[in-house]
Amino acid sequence: MSVETRKILFHALVWVALAALAYNTAGTYRFASCWQIIPLYFPPLSILLFAIFISSIAVLAAAASQPTMRAHSLFWAACHGVILTLGLVTCNLAAYTAVGHVDCL
User: What's the DSSP call for residue 71?
Assistant: First the structure.
C-alpha cells in the first residue's frame, strides 16, 4: 500500500470517527447538530466548500479517463477534497439520524 493510499484511508477513517461522534453528541443547540449554520454566517466558507467539491469531482472525472493523471498530486488533493465534503455531509446525516430535526437559531 502506497503512502498516498494510507493518507486517503486515514483521512476517511477520521471522518468515520467524526460521524460516530456526531451521532453520539447530537442534540438541540449542540455543535454536532448545528454546525451547518456556520457557512450561512460566512458565505465565503460556503462558496469555498462548494468549489472544493466541484473541482475535486471534475479532477476525479478527468482522471477516470486518463490513468496517468492518478500519479499527480492534484489527483490526491482531489481525493482529499471529496472526502472532506462527503465527510461533512455524513456528519450532518449522522446527527440528523440520531435526534431528527433540531432548532439551532
Answer: G
Task: For the full predicted model, state whether its pTM sits above 0.90.
Answer: no
Instruction: For the chain, give every domain's residue range.
Output: 3-99
Q: CB-based burial of residue 28 (10 Å sphere; 0-12 exposed, 13-18 middle, 19+ buried)? A: exposed
84 burial class (0-12, 13-18, 19+ CB within 10 angstroms)? middle
Here the cell at position 102 is 433540531
Q: What is the spatial distance between Cα 46 and Cα 58, in angstroms, rounded to a whole number?
A: 18
Q: Could you give the CA distance from residue 16 to residue 27 in angstroms, rounded to a whole number?
A: 19
**pLDDT band at residue 28 using 50, 70 and 90 as cut-offs:** confident
